[in-house]
Write a structure and sequence with these properties.
Keywords: Amino-acid biosynthesis, Cytoplasm, FAD, Flavoprotein, FMN, Methionine biosynthesis, Methyltransferase, NADP, Oxidoreductase, Phosphoprotein, S-adenosyl-L-methionine, Transferase. By secondary structure, this protein is α/β, with parallel strands linked by helices. It has 21 helices and 22 strands. The protein is 36% helix and 18% strand.
Length: 698
């Protein structure tokens, strides 16, 4: 068989799953894939590699390559490497990202660009898959086109006469499956979703006008509209292209005898774990605020945990106990929840390179694994749905699951599964005849990831303590039945700290409660650059609406202590652009910010209230942080372009961070007198110099 090297760089398993799919499909097309994680540098050597290279790369943070690719990227970024170092290499790259973030697919783009600079050349166009609209919209056609591109590559290397039969097949496939440009796929997918939304609106308008009463309206909706369990023409009458059944590879045995001692340390693989008590919890918002925001203080005095302002750390959290119990009951395993689990690889598996999941510890109870190890809230991928099809006995239910994992049902999958955040439990409740074995869950449910939080304090100001801030995430599930859900981690934390929670909105005035302190497990995050400049005379701009202000509280506390310790030092200006909905409901750290401002630590405090009418003592002339930045465009441009200043942005990636980025482009364009493209290049240079830093999330 014709061999190619297949590397993946993954953060949460998505790139690995796609690479494994490519590996499994390769044999059917006459290829053999040599599959490795990009971090396994002892198992491949690109300098001597003669086979074509296929790389699947995810993106993490605000546009960084995943942790597994850090060493690889550092190695190829070596400036002493000659320009022809990879001249012998031919490759195709698939980047994964989310267009809600400013630096879309940047993990893949960084590697792609550097490989080109070192002489490597594409044998296949790069694909950029967008999780915002559905990765599969790019991933599926990219994989389909890969086989023709590989065939052409081998034909050009070995001669047409050796592969005339394959060439005929490949040319047909090439005509049918030429790689589609990522931009076109993105636009088409957006249009497809818009069409779905438009048709839904028209149907509901007609129903509202013509329905006699609510019952009749509901009946019409059931007939005329799609749902998770129901489809309408043309999909309900279409011939379907469904993915191949993923090969089973795990055997699960449940044993009554007690397992080993279970601890949260066993659920993480790399970082040290610190179990620390909660010493304080304060509600920062009023009870009538749209979101509830909590500040939690951890006592780290008896640990080796250390941090500096701008750092983040992981909280190791469990799944909701009620959801775990519901899943056990639905699987008819409630009476075996305390049985310990033994996993083995099936002897007859067809899965290449099958390995036991590293995130499932040995000899732990079923309940522990579902609680601490598996992301039971994860949106099931199409491969999982395909596997569930064969576990479903009812014909109508089986057909609907086939539709949802099919190419023809992509819009329905996006609308009713991905966008609705439907979980495995939601699907099992919606399709009662589906009875999957436990092995299927262990094969397809990803690792329960620790949740990252920004440090909201300085150890200079709060020795032995660590503060962090979060909104308690609440949302209505759009599946049946509709229920109010909380975020996996924020919901757990909110419940955990109830016994010590204080309603005092001013964190600095609140003392620790006397109730028995609950404990949580935390681990440090890998080093980042979201830190204050080493030189305190450099001016900085901080943009942090809502809980995005958290790391900047640490910055300000740190600067205050520095100025107390070194009063004769030279300190640069500190600007903060803060925003929230209501001045009297969710102005986080209001007293603390006033204190810093009055002391001259915070030289410029610019606040905006998006939902208040313009009135009151602290009338905000603008609604959003980007409007305030625009209002002070000359000062911002001078600080960044002439005073070597830094700008930090923390908070929502979907709207705020992108709007701030666009505003900065406009400001540079206007103040410098250059076109938009040149302004974007200037901003990109600031990012490369690590003077434009982001800590954002969706």
């Amino acid at each position: 068989m014709r061999r190619f090297l297949l590397l993946y760089a993954t953060q949460q398993g998505q790139a690995k799953a796609i690479a494994e799919e490519i590996c499994e499909k390769a044999a059917a097309h006459g290829f053999s894939a040599d599959l490795h994680c990009i971090s396994e540098s002892d198992k491949y050597d690109l300098k001597t590699e003669t086979a074509p290279l296929v790389v699947v790369v995810s993106t993490t943070g605000t546009g960084d390559p995943p942790d597994t690719a850090r060493k690889f990227v550092k190695k190829i970024q070596d400036k002493t490497l000659p320009g022809d170092f990879f001249a012998h290499l031919r490759y195709g790259l698939l980047g994964l990202g989310d267009s809600e973030y400013t630096y879309f697919c940047n993990g893949g783009k960084v590697i792609d660009k550097r490989l080109q600079e070192l002489g490597a050349r594409h044998f296949y166009d790069t694909g950029h898959a967008d999780d915002c609209v559905g990765l599969e919209l790019v991933v599926e056609p990219w994989i389909d086109g890969l086989w023709a591109a590989l065939t052409k590559h081998f034909v050009s290397r070995k001669g047409i006469e050796q592969m005339s039969v394959t060439l005929t097949t490949a040319s047909t496939a090439s005509q049918r499956m030429d790689p589609v440009k990522p931009e076109l796929i993105h636009i088409e997918s957006q249009v497809e979703l818009l069409r779905l939304d438009d048709s839904g609106r028209k149907d509901s308008e007609v129903l509202e006008q013509n329905a006699v009463n609510r019952d009749q309206s509901s009946a019409l909706i059931a007939e005329l509209e799609s749902s998770l369990t129901h489809s309408i023409p043309p999909l309900s009458q279409a011939s379907l292209n469904i993915p191949a059944l993923p090969p089973e590879y795990l055997q699960v045995h449940l044993h009554e005898s007690p397992g080993q001692e279970e601890s949260q340390e066993s659920v993480t693989l790399m970082d040290p774990i610190f179990q620390v008590p909660v010493s304080k919890a304060v509600q920062l918002t009023t009870n009538d605020a749209i979101k509830t925001t909590l500040l939690v203080e951890l006592d780290i005095s008896k640990t080796d945990f250390s941090y500096q302002p701008g750092d983040a750390f992981n909280v190791i959290c469990p799944n909701s106990d009620s959801e775990v119990q519901s899943l056990l009951q639905r699987l008819q395993l409630a009476d075996q929840r305390e049985h310990h689990v033994l996993l083995n690889i099936k002897a007859d598996t067809k899965k290449k390179g099958a390995a036991l999941p590293q995130h499932i510890p040995e000899r732990c109870s079923l309940q522990f694994i579902l609680t601490w190890c598996l992301e039971i809230r994860a949106v099931p991928k199409k491969a999982f749905l395909r596997a569930l099809v064969d576990c479903t006995s009812d014909g109508a239910e089986k057909r609907r699951l086939q539709e949802l994992c099919s190419r023809q049902g992509a819009a329905d999958y996006n609308h009713f599964v991905r966008d609705a955040c439907a979980s495995l439990l939601d699907l099992l409740l919606a399709f009662p005849s589906c009875q999957p074995p436990l092995s299927l869950l262990f094969e397809h449910l990803p690792k329960l990831q620790p949740r990252p939080y920004s440090c909201a304090s300085s150890s200079l100001s709060h020795p032995g303590k660590l503060h962090f801030v979060f909104n308690v995430v609440e949302f209505l599930s759009t599946t049946t039945p509709v229920v109010l859900r909380r975020g996996v981690c924020t919901g757990w934390l909110a419940t955990l700290v109830e016994s010590v929670l204080q309603p005092n909105r001013h964190a600095s005035h609140a003392d620790g409660g006397k109730a028995l302190a609950p404990q949580i497990s935390i681990s440090p995050r890998t080093a980042n650059s979201f830190h204050l400049p080493n030189d305190p005379s450099i001016p900085i701009i901080m943009v942090g609406p809502g809980t995005g202000v958290a790391p900047f509280i640490g910055f300000l506390q740190h600067r205050e202590k520095l100025q107390e310790q070194h009063p004769d030092g030279h300190y640069g200006a500190m600007w903060l652009f803060f925003g929230c909905r209501h001045q009297e409901r969710d102005y986080l750290f209001r007293e603390e910010l006033r204190h810093f401002h009055e002391r001259g630590i915070l030289t410029h405090l610019k606040v905006s209230f998006s939902r208040d009418s313009p009135a009151g003592k602290e009338q905000a002339p603008v609604k959003y942080v980007q409007d305030n930045i625009q209002l002070h465009s000359k000062q911002v441009a001078r600080l960044l372009l002439h005073e070597n200043g830094y700008i930090y942005v923390c908070g929502d990636a979907k709207n705020m961070a992108r709007d701030v980025n666009d505003t900065l482009v406009e400001i540079i364009s206007k103040e410098v007198g250059v076109d938009k493209l040149e302004a974007m290049k200037t901003l990109a240079t600031l990012k490369e110099e690590k003077r434009y830093l982001q800590d954002v999330w969706s």
